[in-house]
Amino acid sequence: MKEVDLSNPEVVRYIVKRFGLRMNKKLGQNFLIRRDVVDDIADAADLTVGTPVLEIGPGIGTLTQGLAETGADVTAVELDDKLLPVLDKTLEHYDNVRIIHGDIMRIDIEETMNHQPFTVCANLPYYITTPIIMKLLEQRLPIEKIVVMVQKEVAERMTFGPGSKIYGALSVSVQYYTEPHLLFEIPPHAFMPAPEVTSAVVSMDVRKEPPVHVTEEKRFFQVVKAAFGQRRKTFANTLKSTGLGKEDVARILTEAGIDGQRRGETFSLEEFADVANAWSRIIEAGR
Ligand code: SAM
């Protein structure tokens, strides 16, 4: 039997009325109302029967339905308890969907996914997009692929390289841990209520190994954070802000073969790695 299409605007309006829902703006509740978009996102996740997939924020179950129809094994984590009775009803015919009430920033994701490799597919709540993505990446969870809908500007930040104004610490982290692709844009009227911004879908293939050799990851991210913390300063000055003395900064830059007058936003991942590794070598030599 073909189930009711949860992306149909009439159906969404009916559900909202029947359950007396108020879309909670603070929780980023903009529900998809276009079946083609739901299908395109689910397709991008490359799911097959039995693939474990984590959805963050199922809302009333619209994307969840698209994921469930691939035959994947769907675990959806929703924070808003008012949506739980809705999801119970809208997804009642899918025995491959498990709804978990919780905050994605607080739950133990690996435990929730039964310590199995999994895929992430979600229309993310925009107010915490970056913390969610960083949590997924930094915890080195056994994730194979992440397909997320985010604000277009964030999608660009995740995928653009050095030299563009939008390149920043998020770009470096995402590109260090994954191979990201900006897939397509989605206009505001694909949602109810319509957000003020255009959205975009990004697919990230999680890397088995980082694309650059880094001796100490903590130092690499310390350099990146310093470089983008004060974008207007020269790179040499941003390095000083980490507590390094002038002479050490000069030694690190010479060792790395980097011109300290450049700005951090022009640096490739390799160059950030060269600086971090030079710093590690100098410290090691001084011990
Ligand atoms: N997946 C649905 C869709 O595409 O129509 C809804 C997406 S809506 C943009 C984001 C969803 O994330 C909302 O249902 C919201 O309640 C939920 N949410 C917000 N913060 C969350 C959190 N910290 N943990 C889990 N879910 C959250």
What does this structure look like?
The chain is α/β, with parallel strands linked by helices. It has two domains: 9-206, Vaccinia Virus protein VP39 (Rossmann fold); 217-285, Orthogonal Bundle (Helicase, Ruva Protein, domain 3), CATH 1.10.8. It is 39% helix and 18% strand. The protein contains twelve helices and nine strands. The protein has helices spanning 9-18, 35-44, 62-68, 84-90, 109-112, 129-138, 152-159, 169-177, 217-229, 235-240, 246-256, 269-286; strands at residues 31-32, 52-56, 73-78, 97-101, 118-123, 143-151, 178-186, 191-192, 199-206. Strands 4-3-2-5-6-9-7 form a seven-stranded mixed beta sheet, with helices on both faces. β5, α6 (129-138) and β6 (143-151) form a beta-alpha-beta unit. It is elongated. The mean pLDDT is 95. The structure holds S-adenosylmethionine.
Could you give the topology of this structure?
Elements: H1 9-18, E1 31-32, H2 35-44, E2 52-56, H3 62-68, E3 73-78, H4 84-90, E4 97-101, H5 109-112, E5 118-123, H6 129-138, E6 143-151, H7 152-159, H8 169-177, E7 178-186, E8 191-192, E9 199-206, H9 217-229, H10 235-240, H11 246-256, H12 269-286
The chain binds S-adenosylmethionine (SAM).
Order of helices and strands: HEHEHEHEHEHEHHEEEHHHH
% residues in beta strands: 15-25%
Number of helices: 12
Q: How many structural domains can be distinguished in the coordinates?
A: 2
What's the CATH topology name of the largest domain?
A: Rossmann fold
Would you identify the CATH H-level superfamily of the largest domain?
Vaccinia Virus protein VP39
Corresponding CATH architecture of the largest domain: 3-Layer(aba) Sandwich
**Spatial order of the strands forming the largest sheet:** 4-3-2-5-6-9-7
Instruction: Give the structural class.
Output: alpha/beta
Low-confidence stretches: none
Estimated helix fraction: 25-40%
Describe the largest sheet: 7 strands, mixed
Number of strands: 9
Average pLDDT figure: 95
Which cofactor or ligand species appear? Answer: S-adenosylmethionine
**Assigned CATH class of the largest domain:** Alpha Beta
